[in-house]
């Protein structure tokens, strides 16, 4: 059905990571990166569960970090948590932030006006090396997952050094969640070397293969 709907290019631009395009399909928006589908406003089940699962397990999620703004599904899900005091979002592409404010959020209920939001334009991996902040939950969706990254530098997030960087900014009993487009037993085992409890969640999709969410927690 979606493939039969005409597509209107809203904006196309060049970034340090290549070409980025926002297009409209009917009432929905799609973001295309270097010719590859990135995210759309008509599918967000696993992006929401990336946040809803760790928040449901957290004893007191006052401060949450989200890596990757995308179409805002994860951020919107976090804002549904009444205990949440602040949500920090790292997004490497300023254009995606701009498009969310100018176009996408209008379709999603204008939730970006929530005073608990702090969006930081920048590279998550670089920011992790310098931040002194700590979080009750960290939810990361900056690439396709540990088995296949579109941006080569994002590989570091899934290494032992990357996981150490995540673990050090988690509060006691904090929870880290990682979105993945494919199952990775190797990554599951690597997480188990840094966290007391690790669990894999399979999220069925209406089209294509299932997504996976890896949740890791200290006790």
How would you sum up this structure, described in words?
- This protein starts with 6 loop residues before the first strand and ends with a strand.
- The model has no long low-confidence stretch (mean pLDDT 92).
- Helices cover 25% and strands 34% of the residues.
- The longest helix is centred in the middle third of the chain and has 14 residues, at 94-107.
- It is α/β, with parallel strands linked by helices.
- A 7-stranded mixed beta sheet has the order 7-6-5-8-9-11-10.
- The protein is built from 6 helices and 11 strands.
- It has helices at residues 45-57, 73-78, 94-107, 124-128, 160-168, 185-191, and strands at residues 7-15, 18-25, 28-33, 36-40, 63-67, 86-91, 117-121, 135-140, 170-180, 197-203, 211-217.
- It has a single domain, classed as Rossmann fold, CATH 3.40.50.
Could you provide a short overview of the structure?
The chain is of the alpha/beta class and 219 residues long. Helix content is 25%, strand content 34%.
Notable features of this structure?
219 residues; alpha/beta; Rossmann fold; seven-stranded mixed sheet; 6 helices; 25% helix
């Amino acid at each position: 059905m979606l493939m039969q709907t005409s597509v209107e290019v809203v904006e196309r631009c060049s970034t340090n990571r290549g070409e980025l395009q926002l297009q409209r399909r009917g009432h929905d928006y799609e973001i295309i990166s270097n010719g590859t589908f990135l995210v759309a406003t008509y599918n967000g089940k696993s992006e929401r569960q990336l946040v809803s699962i760790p928040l449901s397990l957290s004893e007191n999620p006052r401060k949450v970090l989200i890596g990757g703004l995308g179409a805002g599904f994860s951020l919107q899900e976090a804002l549904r948590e009444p205990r949440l005091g602040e949500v920090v979002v790292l997004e490497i592409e300023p254009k995606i932030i701009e498009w969310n404010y100018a176009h996408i959020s209008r379709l999603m209920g204008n939730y970006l006006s929530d005073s608990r939001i702090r969006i930081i334009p920048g590279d998550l991996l670089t920011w992790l090396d310098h931040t002194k902040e700590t979080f009750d939950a960290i939810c990361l969706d900056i690439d396709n997952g540990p088995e296949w990254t579109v941006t080569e530098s994002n590989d570091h997030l899934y290494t032992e050094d990357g996981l150490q960087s995540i673990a050090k900014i988690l509060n006691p009993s904090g929870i880290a969640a990682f979105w993945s487009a494919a199952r990775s037993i190797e990554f599951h085992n690597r997480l188990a070397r840094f966290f007391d409890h690790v669990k894999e969640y399979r999220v069925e999709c209406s089209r294509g293969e299932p997504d996976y969410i890896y949740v890791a927690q200290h006790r």
